[in-house]
Amino acid sequence: MHRRHTALHVLKHRAQNSLMSSSASAPLSQAESATRTTPTMSSTAASNDVIPDELRSTWPQRAWTLAGSAAILASFLTTARLVGASGSAGADLLAAAMAAFAGYSLADLATGVYHWFIDNYGGAGTPILGAQIVAFQDHHLHPSAITRLEPCNNLHVVAGAVAVALPAVGAALSAARAHAAAHACACAFAACVVLSVQFHAWAHERRPSRLPPGVAALQAAGVLVSRPQHAEHHRPPYNTNYCTVSGMWNRVLDGCKVFEALEKVIYLATGVKPRSWRGDEDVK
């Protein structure tokens, strides 16, 4: 997580250095001044073909991502085995498919709740989550930086958590002789939570042509969180559209003002204001 936080700052520092260099150069003609645009982090980053080491995936990050992927695959195979071994495979397959959709839906809700909490509470000194809280606030300042992270650099933290948690959940379900649908729900939930980090990155891609084939179509269909929908989250005070799988829960959570109600309850109970009320990026 420290590498990821550092990576998000790399592009920021490059843009700042570019601004300093341009201000020290010779005066421009009036025509040049009229057409010149201020360098931004994204334009500076795009002009550099060499990917900084901080944005690349390390072997430990690849290992954790692989471990999480293996746990998800094992859960899927357990689901398939239980469906195949049942006396009513057709009915169980339908139940497993419906449960998988439920897991997909719950993952969208879970990412929204987690995103809301990380955005609004805690700071750099918060145990376990401190580095991620800082990184999320830096992401608000430099949203396009996430599109330059290599996949395993982006996925490894959540994948590592799934690598530990999903086998334990699967073992508990097997011990309880749970239906295949329960395994399907857990598998889909875990897979979508891991991939939500990549879905989030794709939602920040400015050029659809750079997306993998089919991703733009899935975004347009609402299967994955769309770029226009997630762009709404990146408008101060950053207090809407928190969900990052499909975004299906955003309308419900925002329309019913669920997070606003929770923020009021937390404030009345603890006196702590969410960052969205303060309108700042203070995470100290």
From TrEMBL:
Mainly localized where?
A: membrane
User: What's the protein name?
Assistant: Lipid desaturase domain-containing protein
> Membrane topology per the record?
Multi-pass membrane protein
Q: Return the Pfam families for the record.
A: Lipid_desat (PF10520)
GO process annotations (BP): fatty acid metabolic process
Q: Which domain of life is it from?
A: Eukaryota
Keyword Transmembrane listed? The answer is yes
- Assigned protein family: Belongs to the fatty acid desaturase CarF family.
Give the source species: Setaria italica (Foxtail millet)
Localization, per the record, is:
Membrane
Annotated Lipid desaturase domain residues? 104-277
Question: Residue spans with biased composition (Low complexity)?
Answer: 18-34
Cellular-component GO terms for this entry: membrane
The protein's UniProt keywords, in alphabetical order, are: Membrane, Transmembrane, Transmembrane helix
Query: Is Membrane among this UniProt entry's keywords?
Result: yes
Transmembrane intervals: 63-83, 89-107, 155-175, 181-203
Bias (Polar residues) occurs at 35-47
Q: Where is this region: Disordered?
A: 18-49
